[in-house]
Amino acid sequence: MYELNICHLYSDLLNLYGDRGNIIALKKRAEWRGIDVSVTNISIGQNFIPENYDIIFLGGGQDYEQEIIQNDILRSKGSEIKNAIENNKVFLCICGGYQLLGHYYKTHDGKEIEFLGALDLWTTAGNERMIGNIAFQCDVLKTDNYDGVVVGFENHSGKTYLGKDVKPLGKVLCGYGNNGEDGYEGAVYKNVFCSYSHGSLLPKNPQFTDHLISIALKNKYSDFNSLSKLDDTIENAAHDAVLDIILQAAGTKKNK
Amino acid sequence: MKKIRLFTAILTAKLTIKILRILKRGGTTLPGKIAMKLCPDILNKIAGSFKVIMVTGTNGKTTTTRIIAQMLKQSGTEFITNKSGANLVSGIITTFIENVSLTGHSKYSTALLEIDEAAFRKVSLSIEPDILVVTNFFRDQLDRYGELYTTLKGVKSGISNFKNTKLVLNADDSLCASLAHDVDKETVYYGISSEAYNAPDEIYNSDAVFCIHCKTKYEYSSRVYGHLGWFSCPNCGYRRPATQITCTSIEELSDSYSILTLDISGKAYKAKVNLPGLYNIYNSLAAAACGYLLNLSNEVIIDAIGSFECGFGRMESIDAGNKAIKLILVKNPTGFDQVISYLKTIKKPSVFAFIINDKLADGTDISWLWDVEFEKLSKMDNILYFFTSGIRAEDMAVRLKYASVDTELIVIEKDYDKLIERALEKTPEGSSLYILPTYTAMLEIRKTLSNRFALKEFWK
Questions:
Q1: Which residue of the set B143, B365, B406, B417 is catalytic?
Q2: Which domains, from first to last, does chain B contain?
Q3: CA of B375: which chain A residue's CA is closest?
Q4: Which residues of chain A have a CB within 8 Å of the CB of B364?
Q5: Which residues pair with B263 in a beta bridge?
Q6: d(CA B379, CA B450)
Q7: Which domains are delineated in chain A?
Q8: For B153-204, what is each residue's pLDDT tens digit?
Q9: Could you report the predicted ipTM of this complex, rounded to two decimals?
Q10: Nearest C-alpha of chain B: how many angstroms from A64?
């Protein structure tokens, strides 16, 4: 029997907007395939040993909570996280967690707050909150049966820009994405997947969830081939219903 | 000239109220908006002569306001209040306009106002209350309000505009209790004693893990739910303040009421809370603290807690032949979790219907559904069907599936008429259909229900 060990980093602090939904989706979809799943919460002051985990999740927090973890992630877990990333560990990082992996966050008054620098990207404070449903085209996920359109909800004011070493996760169809300027959303580097789409990103995009589980199992088991098929009627209905809402809203905007 | 402007604003708004009522359109906010356009400082002008009680916070405002209203009624105080949850600036102006003459005078001298926590700062610029009751601070509709700490700061800065206001604060909520910090105001704290209740389960949702003053992790000697409990900071010493209004023991938590011992400044009383759930105990304590500051007799306070009518959509019961429909508003994770704790007390075979909308008043981001512990419902074997409806019916269905609810029992039905028909058909005789809508879904489903059954019009 295959085992999948998930680590939720700073689960008591970075857990905004239903981030837990991503963990639940990973866990359930693995369990429905008969895979044995464990979820470990690691927070401030606790030892983080990446070798123990197959998927590592880093969510978003409020500014107040992000300040609290700043020191811990930079000084005590930083080098472990960087090593794990270079060793092809699977990461899913959302919103604040995404920003934390970059070089820095530049505040309104021009101060640069040092971040982890694990990924070649950086964020600057924006004046407007970018809020709303988002749809983006994610070619990595495209298969014969799936067009690779991911739906979610974004809520951020930070604008993130990618350096040359990271690729965007997708191309924005409707919404703001990384910075509301270049038309891209999220970032991919090795097996690290970053997105501004929070909370219910994975549940409504089952192909994305399966993609992460598959890479993690391939990393771990040489005999792993592919995941068995599940009945995704409800998930797909939710995905399509939101996509309809997004496209309709975009349509009315254009007509105005 | 100024008087004419006030007169015109009141007249126009009063006419608008009349027209909207004739059209059966509720009309709880539009008249206020019009009045504000015509006379921007109208609130300041007409509210000045009232003794004002304000209730704010993220959860429990409406119920707390209801209980205070019951206390005022029983003590023979005549008052005005914004009953139907019209709690933004426009709704508050409408409330006053309905109750003043064209010259801005009123026969009432007390105003009991439920104020939206995000609108509070704005209201604080025009009205200074005699008493401000704050219920709690939980994450709520973040896409509209921004972060929880921003909401808290807004209320705090509103309070700093007041000179003589007395505060009623929740001692068990580290965020709420912090409002008294650095302000020189008479404060009455309420809370549940650590002997009365300590949560048996692991607490999941936590909006305030770290000390608001020094960012050290709180220690708890007992917990109620969410971040509520006996907190203390091991670093700076900030801790749950002592309470004047205390629930010292809980004798019974049933599916329709609670029995507890209520200590009002040293005197103990047995009390029945006329709505179920721990959260309604907090609402009762908040109201009791307000009654205490109003110098109402303790008997009136206890009576009111045991007899108040529930608010719009808060456990409303509708007769449908020999079946019942129960409406319970849901709007944020902590509130929903409390409703789930209540639903778990149901023993009869029943049907649930979740109606989830994502309009502005509901919060356009529905990812909070993933912070609610629906997993607890999957363990109930007396729930025959889980219907989902509303704009985000499919999202709700996904959430239930991932909470291990059997997919055979999940039914998506977006048409409200068909929903009521199908769900009632599945409800056994003598049992209840529990409908759990978000705010705008509540307005919509009540319309559907009022076409079939006898319902009060919501502005009454």
A1: B365
A2: 51-79+112-307 (3.40.1190.10), 314-452 (3.90.190.20)
A3: A24
A4: 131-133, 153
A5: B246, B268
A6: 33
A7: 3-255 (3.40.50.880)
A8: 999 999 999 999 999 999 999 999 999 998 999 999 999 999 999 887 776 6
A9: 0.95
A10: 8
